[in-house]
Design brief:
Layout: E1 2-7, E2 13-19, H1 21-24, H2 30-44, H3 103-119, E3 123-126, H4 136-145, E4 153-157, H5 162-168, E5 174-178, H6 184-188, E6 192-196, H7 197-206
Parallel strand pairs: 1-3, 3-6, 4-5, 4-6
Antiparallel strand pairs: 1-2
């Protein structure tokens, strides 16, 4: 087991936490991380895009002119895809983009992302994260103490803390998640992971 330093909100060391090797000591597998991220993004897609085919476009019920004798090309509808205002050929239709990947793969990808962040020294463990009242200024001050102001940070707490959430939501480079809600994509798209001691324990027990 490896150890990581625990800090308080003033950026002073107050102890150490043990890290499981099977969670924070996993070799980086780029292909697995890619698969997990692609799966996450695919599952976020709504798939509500839609275009009208020639059968859905209004009008075109009458044949524009007779089949023969006019010298013009044959036409059966003014709503042909060849005509202005006609339907769309092979346009996107509503569909479900979501798919599942193996649960073991998903957990391993999460462990790989955590291991990668640890090796890059981008995980900061706090003994606690408390804000007395919902104030953005208070959260900015805490990030400033930790040297994280202006950096893309993911805050991980064990349970939802309303004051922490409300103090963070107006900071564009900050995201708050519960330990049970973290995923590979959120870990990889943030430069630093700021996690509380209790949340760290919950993550290690869950995966």
């Amino acid at each position: 087991m490896a150890d990581i330093e625990i800090k308080n909100m003033e950026n002073k060391a107050v102890g150490k936490a043990s890290l499981k090797d099977d969670v924070f000591g996993v070799p980086v597998n780029a292909g697995l991380l890619h698969s997990a991220v692609v799966n996450f993004l695919a599952n976020q897609r709504q798939g509500t895009h839609s275009t009208k085919t020639r059968g859905k476009v209004r009008g075109g019920g009458k044949k524009p002119w007779r089949q023969k004798g006019t010298g013009r090309a044959r036409a059966g509808s003014i709503r042909s895809p060849l005509w202005k205002g006609g339907g769309t050929t092979f346009g996107p239709q509503p569909r479900d983009y979501s798919y599942n990947i193996n649960k073991k793969q998903k957990k391993l990808a999460l462990k790989t992302a955590l291991s990668s962040k640890l090796s890059d020294e981008q995980i900061i463990v706090l003994d606690e994260l408390k804000v007395d009242s919902p104030r953005t200024k208070s959260m900015v001050a805490i990030l400033g103490n930790l040297g994280l102001e202006g950096k893309k940070v993911l805050i991980v707490t064990k349970e939802k803390d309303e004051n922490v959430y409300l103090s963070s939501r107006n900071i564009p480079y900050l995201k708050v998640k519960r330990a049970s809600d973290i995923n590979t994509y959120s870990l990889l798209t943030h430069e630093y992971i700021l996690i509380t001691k209790d949340a760290l324990q919950a993550v290690q027990e869950a995966i």
